[in-house]
Write a structure and sequence with these properties.
One of its GO terms (cellular component) is fungal-type cell wall. The protein contains 15 helices and eight strands. The protein has about 475 residues and is α/β, with parallel strands linked by helices. The chain has one domain (about 25-455): Rossmann fold, CATH 3.40.50.1240. Strands 1, 2, 3, 4, 5, 6, 7 and 8 form an eight-stranded mixed sheet that branches. It is globular. It starts with a helix and ends in a 9-residue tail after the last helix. Bound molecules: 2-acetamido-2-deoxy-beta-D-glucopyranose (NAG) (12 copies). One 2-acetamido-2-deoxy-beta-D-glucopyranose binds near residues 123, 465 and 466.
Amino acid sequence: MVALPFVLLAAALVEAAPTLPWKKDSDIDIIGTQEHLFPYLAGSAPHFSYPLSYGIPKEVPEQCTIKQVQLFARHGERYPTNGTGAKIAATYAKMANLTAANGSLAFLNNGYEFFIPNSDNFEELTTWENTLDPINPYLGEQDARLHAREFLNQYSDLLNDTTSFAMFTSNSKRVHDTAKFFADALGDKYNVSMQIIDENISSGANTLTPINSCTVYNESENAAVYANYSTAYLKDIATRLNNENKGLNLTTSDALNMFSWCAYEVNAKGYSEICEVFKPEELVYFSYYDDLTSYYMDGPGNSLGKTVGAVNFNASVELLKQSDSLDQKVWLSFTHDTNIVNYLAAVGLFDDGNKLPVSYVPIKNHLYHKSWMVPQGARVYTQLYECSNQTYVRYVVNDVVIPIEKCSSGPGFSCEFEDFITYANSRLNGTNYVSSCEIEKTSNQTELTFYWDYKTKNYNASLLLQ
Ligand SMILES: *[C@@H]1O[C@H](CO)[C@@H](O)[C@H](O)[C@H]1NC(C)=O
Ligand SMILES: *[C@@H]1O[C@H](CO)[C@@H](O)[C@H](O)[C@H]1NC(C)=O
Ligand SMILES: *[C@@H]1O[C@H](CO)[C@@H](O)[C@H](O)[C@H]1NC(C)=O
Ligand SMILES: *[C@@H]1O[C@H](CO)[C@@H](O)[C@H](O)[C@H]1NC(C)=O
Ligand SMILES: *[C@@H]1O[C@H](CO)[C@@H](O)[C@H](O)[C@H]1NC(C)=O
Ligand SMILES: *[C@@H]1O[C@H](CO)[C@@H](O)[C@H](O)[C@H]1NC(C)=O
Ligand SMILES: *[C@@H]1O[C@H](CO)[C@@H](O)[C@H](O)[C@H]1NC(C)=O
Ligand SMILES: *[C@@H]1O[C@H](CO)[C@@H](O)[C@H](O)[C@H]1NC(C)=O
Ligand SMILES: *[C@@H]1O[C@H](CO)[C@@H](O)[C@H](O)[C@H]1NC(C)=O
Ligand SMILES: *[C@@H]1O[C@H](CO)[C@@H](O)[C@H](O)[C@H]1NC(C)=O
Ligand SMILES: *[C@@H]1O[C@H](CO)[C@@H](O)[C@H](O)[C@H]1NC(C)=O
Ligand SMILES: *[C@@H]1O[C@H](CO)[C@@H](O)[C@H](O)[C@H]1NC(C)=O
């Protein structure tokens, strides 16, 4: 008798269940158990907070009042790009030919379905509509919505007087979709005018993606440096799997592709068996390889990394300076990881002036963790706040306060405003985007103006899968 209500409840659940596409029960066992891997997966796996905090609260100190906030954000969790998707598929094709896979590849015999059966979802954000598993908790769509609620929780006071405001996104579809899900989740109370800024070279400096307009930018100028990084960990992975499976002939490139496979499969379905193939040390070697390539291709190790990032840093500093006279107090911009890496190179938060070594992994002296800076859904906040008639600036990267160490004696380890301007000028000094990037050869847009002229220009570039 007592059991009756439970029987009824169970019957109701059984009736409800078939409306969800059924995969397999094992997802419930695995989902949630792989989050410790995310920091080692090159920022391709789902979002996570910056793993190292000194315990400084990200809320502005009690005695202070927030005056302005800026956000420079990455799109959320996504499928692989066309290029990476094709590489992962080629590696999978080699394994798919095994008649009876063994060892850590045994999962392939257990009803495994490859997560990118075709190219339909390449380049796209992961959403409720395109997820491969209905209980995937890591969707780019949901990440954007949750982020919006966290944003409102901390900063909604800044919207008291301005419920109509502009947001800014590049015209990459996944970037735009992230901004749109974020805007929708703010709720009906807010009236967002979405400004869609073209990534095209013709945008010159007036863009969230200034590296695209810099035709002389050479990402591989230091290829000879990181080419010296040991690939022994990749050989170990390939050899181990080849030994376990007769006829398998994985190369070091296949081993490298398996890390992307792992990360993007988690984005698409919430878990990935291929992630279990790696030993912890192999993940560390891979993660540092990603730091090296990011640092030398797009970060402080590239001769133009900081110069390109200075476009958005300079605009950010101008918004801070003009805070009192600007009605809008909240400046939300969405773009790609590379652009945030460029930007952070200009700000200098993760640049101690020492070039990253390639002959060893600097475990103890290691500031530049790319995946910690720009995981999927990355969020770099600039806070401007006032305490007892003094104004201060501070950065919060993925939920953790990252002080400008030499200028952090203000409340909450912030930098006093005039000192911050001196700091910013010293970082920007010597960078000249327009001349270094020869912008005038391809565009007449030599300044970033969209934050100031969006009301008349109404930026509305067409969305592109890129
Ligand atoms: C898989 O096997 C098929 C048929 O034997 C062969 O044509 C194909 O090249 C193999 N694929 C790979 C990636 O080895
Ligand atoms: C915004 O409104 C809330 C609730 O009405 C109020 O508590 C808060 O002081 C206001 N903040 C500002 C900056 O005006
Ligand atoms: C929403 O913002 C637009 C400007 O982007 C403005 O024209 C419109 O009147 C606003 N609507 C409401 C309901 O505030
Ligand atoms: C950039 O815009 C120009 C002019 O509209 C167009 O011809 C070109 O294809 C665009 N380039 C890209 C990469 O989309
Ligand atoms: C980029 O730099 C590398 C290394 O110096 C050089 O080999 C390559 O030609 C450069 N690429 C371009 C397009 O200048
Ligand atoms: C790569 O390593 C070799 C051997 O240690 C060394 O001679 C060479 O200078 C290194 N190249 C670069 C670009 O660091
Ligand atoms: C896997 O192991 C079984 C049993 O040892 C063996 O028969 C089979 O050939 C192995 N498969 C591969 C691909 O090596
Ligand atoms: C494995 O691949 C390498 C390089 O592609 C090739 O030289 C070798 O013959 C292949 N081995 C087998 C067993 O297919
Ligand atoms: C802040 O500045 C105003 C005007 O300069 C002054 O009247 C006020 O006393 C100051 N308040 C504090 C807490 O210093
Ligand atoms: C900029 O750099 C030049 C040369 O290194 C130096 O003389 C000047 O004082 C610097 N200016 C600022 C504002 O840091
Ligand atoms: C750039 O050129 C276009 C068309 O040639 C013109 O409409 C636009 O006003 C120019 N922009 C600037 C900033 O000069
Ligand atoms: C990826 O492929 C799709 C479909 O073929 C194409 O529309 C898109 O432009 C491609 N994107 C890139 C970045 O190559």
